[in-house]
Design a protein that fits this description.
The structure is a single chain. With about 230 residues, this protein is an alpha+beta fold. The protein folds into two domains: about 15-185, SET domain (Beta-clip-like); about 185-230, no CATH class. The chain is built from three helices and 14 strands. It has helices spanning about 175-180, 185-210, 220-225, and strands spanning about 15-20, 20, 50-55, 60-65, 75, 80-85, 90-95, 95-100, 110, 115-120, 125, 140-145, 155, 170. Strands 5-11-10 form a three-stranded antiparallel β-sheet, with no helix packed on it. The chain has a three-stranded antiparallel β-sheet with strand order 6-8-7. Strand 10 and strand 11 form a beta hairpin. The termini are far apart.
Length: about 230
Amino acid sequence: MAVTASINPPAAAPGTKINGTATDAGVNGASTLPNGGLAPPTDKDLDSLLTVHHGPNYTTKAVSKVALPPGAVFARITSATPAPAPVYTTVQRGADAHVELNSDLRYINHSCEPNLIFDMDAMEVRVDPTSSEGLKVGDELAFFYPSTEWVMDRGFECQCGAPACLGFIEGAKTLDEKTLGRYWVSRHVRELRERQKLEKISKRVSSGGLDALGGKMPLGFRSVAGGGLV
């Protein structure tokens, strides 16, 4: 990513915007990014951002080489290509859109206590804004798979070891509202959840009439249905 700057530019303070993008700072305000924090690195800079460890039984994990505060950009996603269908290596970008990352970002595993988010609208990987500690050098990188995946190609038994581990992970569709509300989730996941709610209401009305809803039609359903049952 090209950045126009003068020779020996002054260090940007955390939160300063350059070319419309907030700079990133490490622990105590000192940037640990390979480009000095002038602009977020891309997935072509991953050798400076993470190390991939290959373990037994074909297991892999990615470990951070940088320290960043909550909300900071870890890497911009620039190498992704559309995928025809979800598979275990893809990330969901929209209600019916999936991409292959085509980079070592694919080695970032799931955790029920994530330190990263994949913002597929902005095409950025960022430090989880809900994290209290941010990202430290040596941390295993992880994001919450249901934050992007509505229905996964294959579910799995989570072994993240977090105190509030959810166990079997298969996407956001099967999670209850309270659980999903604990996490940052993508716009398309929120929209699919709203669609799911309306479908449930529609089925209840179709099968039992307004009596199934206590004699009242929810305002959210009225607004979508245009004031009548459809």
